[in-house]
Amino acid sequence: MNAPFVIGEQVRAVDLRQPGEAARIEGFVAEIGGSLFHRPRWLQAVERGTGQRARGLLAEKGGTIVGWLPLSEVHSPIFGRVLASSGFAVEGGALAERDTIAEALCRAAEEYARRLACPTIELRGGVAPPDWRVRTDSHCGFVRELAENGEAQLLAIPRKQRAEVRKGLDADLTVHVGTGAADRAAHYAVYAESVRNLGTPVFPRSLFDAAMDALEGDILTVRHHGEPVASVLSLYHAGAVLPYWGGGTWAARRLRANERMYYDLMLHARRRGCTRFDFGRSKTGSGAWAFKKNWGFEPEPLCYASWTAPGAEARDADPTSARHAARIALWRRLPLRLANLLGPPIARGLG
């Protein structure tokens, strides 16, 4: 499987279980300014947490890395097989010194997908060949500079949203940041309830644990009378904080706990030395999209691309797809214990 693909620069599949190989690629990602989701450590965390295989294609010239395409081989009995770049991520795609190298990596990925019996490739960013399906209208990203102090950060929030944050600051809430077992348990309980309420299967807790163990991160939890009502697992990369998995219970809305959570995270991240707040992606025009815009973040359209093997059916794992509307409505009505039992085996195949 490590035989090179004969396309321009030498392109080959890599074995990320070899520490030296993974370390070389980590260095390339840092040098060229790649995202958290280009890192081998992300792919390895996904593999440990979900069982989906960490893979990738490397372009080299004279023994020097000139391009890298991170890949997760995702299998689901419901959604089928896919090579995702990157799995369970909002960014990815080919990272290369030139667009021609990035396109060569994508062409090599087509052959690689055939070898692995994956009829679909999904790129969450980066350059794609002209005959691939490209969309810029499905999702937007939200990134903004952090202010220098708490008062400035509050004033940077638009007036109506600032009033909601102040309500959260005035409420009887406590905030704690940590990485221990109690922090992880509280976060998972809140997050699982939050996504059930949205009609989405919850990821296995092992994914969160793997990400926390492999990457720089922490958990901020907001409590009301000792009870967790909002919690977010954040990751840190290249001067940015990424509040990646967060949510709140039904009580969080009344208490403005989510508003308190994100404002306190901004202050916490600044104290850690971060200069940017990466609010992640949201479906264009969705409620989450509007929520982030209300905070003063400008939506930036994301470029996603996909390839489907000739004769194969395009994969559809989009939770907002009309195809899944009835399933989502049913999931929202499930008892929480049942949703938490059934959710992880389904969610580990979403990719």
TrEMBL record:
Gene3D superfamilies: 3.40.630.30
SUPFAM superfamilies tied to this protein: Acyl-CoA N-acyltransferases (Nat) (SSF55729)
Location of the BioF2-like acetyltransferase domain: 162-292
Coiled-coil ranges from the UniProt annotation: none
Pfam families, per the entry: Acetyltransf_6
Organism domain of life: Bacteria
UniProt cross-references to PANTHER family, sorted A to Z: LIPID II:GLYCINE GLYCYLTRANSFERASE (PTHR36174:SF1)
Protein name: FemAB family PEP-CTERM system-associated protein
Originating organism: Croceibacterium soli
